[in-house]
Every structure is written in structure tokens, then in C-alpha cells.
Amino acid sequence: MTLSRILAAGVALAALSHGAANAQQAPAVDLKAAEARAAATVKQMTAEEKVILTHGPMPLPFFPGTVMPKEAIPGAGYIAGVPRLGVPALTETDASLGVAWVGGLRKDGATALPSGLAQAASWNPQLLYQGGAMIGSEARAKGFNVLLAGGVNLMRDPRNGRTFEYLAEDPLLSGMLVGAAIRGIQSNHIISTIKHFALNGQETGRKYVDIKINEGAARESDLLAFQIGIEQGQPGSVMCAYNRVHGDQACASDWLLNKVLKQSWGWKGFVMSDWGAVPGLDAAIKGLDQQSGEQLDKGVFFADQLKAKAAADPAWSARLDDMNKRVLTAIYAAGLDKNPAKPGGAIDFAKNAQVAEETAKQGIVLLKNREGLLPLAKTAKSIAVIGGYADSGVVAGSGSSLVHDEKGPAATRSLGGDGPFAALMQQSYHRSAPLKAIKALAPQATVTFRDGRYIADAVEKAKQAEVAIVFATEWRTEGLDQPDLSLPDGQDALIAAVAAANPNTIVVLETGGPVAMPWLDKAGAVVEAWYPGARGGEAIASVLFGDTNPGGRLPVTFPASVDQLPRPKLDGSDWVEPNFSGDPEPGKDKLVADYDVEGSDVGYRWFARNGAKPLFPFGYGLSYTTFSRNALKVAGLSASFTLTNTGKVAGDDVGQVYLVSRPDGAKQRLVGFQRVSLAPGASQKVTVKIDPRLLADWKDGGWTMPAGEYGFALGANAQDLGPVVKVKMAARNWKD
Q: How far, in Å, CA of 135 to CA of 49, rounded?
């Protein structure tokens, strides 16, 4: 979609913050008119009506006593409207990767995009816009007008169970990509969130882990990802997080919600809570505008209690008016009232599946390819496919973001349990079998399959084949973290044995994040496919046989071991009992995660600071062709360079520009990137703008850049960098 069409798409939340760095990417809309209209509506509201938009239930029958509101659609949330004033109800669904399945309660299905990591591995904002527009259209057709999307938490720990939902370890890459996805979603006249605000880095003790980090480090890393994402996408709502920050619950953090989000950034939308994340009524004064999934909290604080407080205290009355104004501003800016979403809309699932497949193809990363083992020839005579439920489908991450088509999962593997969240706690597979796709692309080959439960059986079949393809899965879910970086269920031993039996062994990884690879030296080729979504099997086969030249690049560093991490032991992993809801046991809610260890040096920045060599660096990815990257020039806050395809087949490369030094010493930060498609022998000059915040430090309430010489390098990844270009820059100091 062209930029002009994006601008005309009616995202309608053009200036919910005053710091939009790229205003040309947001549609023209009169926010002042939306605010004025919201203020006028608030003046017409009765005391009873003023606590309608401030709270609502989770309309799912998972909890005893839940009453389904008449207008509600089974999904994540429901906020009643005010019909007298023409204010529509808010119908909410989880939707980062597609309209959530919620155990099939609606008797429908949706198109599953690949995981957030897979999307981010494309390094292609336009692709994320298209994916967002697709899931937004499906949500609208089902009657939803609010999507709980936009996950942008940085990956401070690769063991985080929700890593698959998020995008990257870098604030620029994360912010640009999530902003594009939000713009796509909101082009459907619906509201998207951005979440989980903020510093939500682990699932272990997720409702009480207390994040320790100084403000400068937070502003330069996690908060910058949110800030860029809000500027680029202008989401109508921000969802606050479960964790504590500086001792306060994130959904009751005056610093996060008032001082940073609403005052420093000047954001005009509304803050909704995560489900079960509201500690009490005081959260309203601390900046929370809406209590979501109210039956999951200890009480419904934002109804009668809020009404009584507003009646007795002018300050609370003014706050309640502001809460309503913010919700209404988002509703009017997005056009929810003038463009109502109604159930029963048409969905072109075939067309949407192509969006999911293209996303998967662009996100697949080729990590190793010994002696050109890949792409495979379609004339191969015998192929042994082993493991990973490859005869059934591709693995999906679980939790609130789980998506399936109307037929449900192709296969499931329960983790057991009988609690209200047991339905979410199962490993499941999308109906896109790699085995079937491989057979379709190599019709003359003898293709056999072994499930990998018995290593001896797999080894025997691998010995008989020209090529062995091992599919390895690493399932993740909201509510649980990984204990380490290994592949579960003995799959590392399976891969090692198969690779020893057949030197032409290709490993296809379907993982929710980085994993260790003790068998790497033995494998002939390694393909990272992530959770590849509704058409993942077809996308994987397309890459294996060369119909698609892999152009994905890692959006997260793959450590060689947990010993390289800022916190080798995941905080709380030795004493916190697994608990999906994240609630503490009586007397056990003291858990601190010290993010000051790495500060703003997350991921590749931490490795650069320590001179450590990871298994695979941030930005890494191979191709079936070769590229040259040269002619880097930096002038002011603009960088240009040239990419050339020096090989024999068409392919995509990602130009990556890094800051490598400042006047005060070495400092590595990604400052610009662009993915380009090049025919053999073709070259393309690329120009990227440099956000000055990436060159600066946050100190004393603002950004500061020292005067002097700044060094930049063009790289294939964060560790493979070209010559350093040095540029003198003047000192700068500014506020958001």
C-alpha cells in the first residue's frame, strides 16, 4: 500500500501525542475537534453515566458468576456505551497475532499471523502494516472495535514466555514496526492498544516482580520503544502492565502513567488496565483511565467507589471527567461511533492467508548453510522428515494471543490442570503441515516421516535418505517462562543423532525465542522459522526449495549460553511456583529484577559493552545470494548507503546503520535500517533519517548530546560492521 493510501485510510488518531517525529506518516485529522467533542459530551453526562466507560468485565464463561452483557461478544473485554449520547460500547479482543480464538467459544476462526518475532525478523514496517490491516479487518467483521494488540516490550531476557508475542530487543526496530502494525489495525476505524506499559520483561511472578531501573536507562530503552511506537502508530489506548516499577504496580504508577506518558509525551488517549492488574481505586489518580476484566481484580473499583469519590472531592471529579474525555477522544478520533463494527461481516480468508504466508516467508532466517546445502533441488530422490509434528502443522504460541481457524488446532498437547486457564495451557498447532508442503514441491521424491519420539527410529530413516530435515519445536506461553535455552523433550539429542547419521541434515526451528544449539557444528543447515502462522508449512517449504530466498534477519541476539545474560538466573525461577495468573502466594510477593545491571544496553548493546560473542548476533541472516554494502555517508541526521546484489539470484538485504562511538567513548546503537529487494547485479542507494534520541542520553529531565565526533558503521549485522565514518556534531539539549 502506498503512503498516500495509508494517509487516506482513516487511522484518525493523528496526534494523540505532541511529539510525532514523522507526521507525514499519520493521517490528517483534527484532534482538537475530537477533544472538543469529547469535552462537550462529558458535560452532558450524568454522574451515573460517567462511570460507564471506566470499567467492564471479561465476557467469557471461565469464571463463576460471570454474566454476559447483552451486547458483548465472547472475547477479552466489554465496556458498555452510553446510548443516550450516541457513545458506542467497546468490544475488545486480544489480537496481536490475529483475532484470539478464546477456546473456540464463538464457533468461528481467524487468520493467524506469524509470531511477533517472525514479523520483526522481516525488518519491514510495510509488511507489519499489511498484517495489522488484515487482523483489524477480521476483528471488525466479527464486531470488535478495540484490539488488544501492539506488544512492544523489549526482550531483556530471552527466556521470557511472551517473547514470541513481542518484536525485538532494540527500541528503534521495535517502535517503528509496532507503529506500522498499529496504523494498519486502526485503518479499519477501530482502536488498537500498545502494550504492556512498561518494563514487562518476565512472566515469573508477573504481577509482583518489581523492576529496578534508573529513569535515564528506562527512557533510552523500553520507554523509547513505546514512545516511538506511539508517535508512529498513534494508538487510541495504552495498556499498562502487571509488574511493579519502583515499588508501584505499573497500572498505578504515577511516574509511568502521568509523568511520562501523559505529561512528558503529551499523549491524549486512555490507559486501560491489563486484566487483573488494578490494585485499588487510587490507580485512577495515578493515571489509570479504565478498569478492564474487572472480575479478575479484588474489587470493581472504577464504578460505585469512583462515583462516590468524585461526588465528595473536586480533584477526583476533575479526574473522572478527564478519564471520560480520554476514552471519548479515542472513540471520536477513530470514528467508532460513525463507523460501527457489527458481527457478520465478510472475511476473505484465502486472501488473508496470503498475507500470513508472505509475512512468514519474509521473517524466516537462514542461520547456517554449509556448502550450499540449501536450497534443495526439487529433483531430490529421498527426503526423511523428522519430528516437530511436521505431519500435522506448525506450532503456535499460547495464552491470550492464541489464534486458530474455525476447525481449531491440528494437534494439541495438554499441560494438564483444571483451573480457569487450563484451556490456554496447551501446546497446539496450526493446520499447515510442512510434510505436505514438502511433498508438493518435490513430487518425484520419496518422502518419509518419523515423529522423533524414538531416536533409533529417526536415525535409521535418516541414514536411508539423501537429505534429513529435522523439525524442532520450542513452545511458549503467556504465564510461564523458559528455564533455560535448550530445546525441550530431548530434541537436542535427536538432532545431534540425526546429524551424525546424515551429514545433509537440515534443522528447521519453530521457536518462540532464542535457543542454544549444541549440535550446530554437526548440522548442515539451520533455518529459524519461529511460529510461522496459518500458512507456515507452505512458507517453510518455499524457503527450503528456493522458491523464496530467505531475507529475514534476527531481531534478537541468540546467546551462546545463559551465562552471557545480564542475569544468568531468571529472577524468582528458584522459588516462584508456576502460576498463569501471576498472583503471589500469601506472604511471598517480594521479587526484584535489577535492570540497572544492563541499563539501556539491552541485547546486542550488552554484548558490545562486554565484548562478548553470541551464538548469532542481532541483525544476522544468510541468503542464497551475496551482497555488498558500501558508500556510507552521514550528514547531520541523515545517513545514506548503497546495497548491491553481487550474486546470481534475486534476494532481499537489510541495510543496518549503527552508531559505534560518541565523544565520550564506544557506544553501539541501531540508528537506521531498510530492507530492499535486489535483482542479480542490481544496486540501490538508501537514505535513512537518524532520530537524535538514539545519539543522546536522558539526563536531568531531558535529552542531551555532547559536542564532538560521532562514529557510524554500516553492517550486515551488529557484529559484522564496515568502515567507521566519523562526523562532528554540535551539542544539543532538548525535552520531549
A: 32
Contacts of 348 (CB under 8 A, 6+ apart): none
Burial 40-51, CB ≥16 within 10 A → b, else e:
ebbeebeeebbb
Give the torsion sign (CA, 222, 229, 267, 701).
Answer: positive
> Residues 675-697: pLDDT tens digits?
999 999 999 999 999 999 999 99
What confidence tens digit (pLDDT) does each residue in 187-217 have? 999 999 999 999 999 999 999 999 999 999 9
- For 709, other C-beta atoms within 10 Å of its C-beta total 11
Alpha-carbon span 530 to 189, nearest angstrom: 31
- The dihedral through the CA atoms of 122, 126, 128, 130 has a sign that is negative
Strand order in the sheet with 683-689: 627-635, 638-645, 683-689
Pairing of strands 638-645, 525-528: unpaired
Give the three-class secondary structure for 330: helix
Alpha carbon separation from 640 to 245, 602, 660, 671, 693 (Å, rounded): 39, 26, 16, 12, 19
Beta bridge partners of 687: 640
- Residues with Cβ within 8 Å of 704's Cβ and at least 6 positions away in sequence, in order, are 696, 697, 698, 731, 732, 733
CA distances from 286 to 195, 281, 308, 311, 341 (A): 18, 9, 18, 18, 32
Lowest pLDDT segment from 39-43, 355-359, 405-409, 582-586: 582-586
**SS3 call for 156:** coil
Expressed in angstroms, the distance from the first to the final Cα of the chain is 31
Q: Give the C-alpha distances (Å, rounded to integers) separating 108 from 142, 343, 420.
A: 9, 11, 21
163 three-state secondary structure: helix
How far, in Å, CA of 364 to CA of 541, rounded? 11
Integer CA distances (angstroms), 304 to 49, 52, 309, 320, 480, in order = 11, 10, 9, 12, 35
Three-class DSSP category at 525? strand
Pairing of strands 426-430, 365-369: unpaired
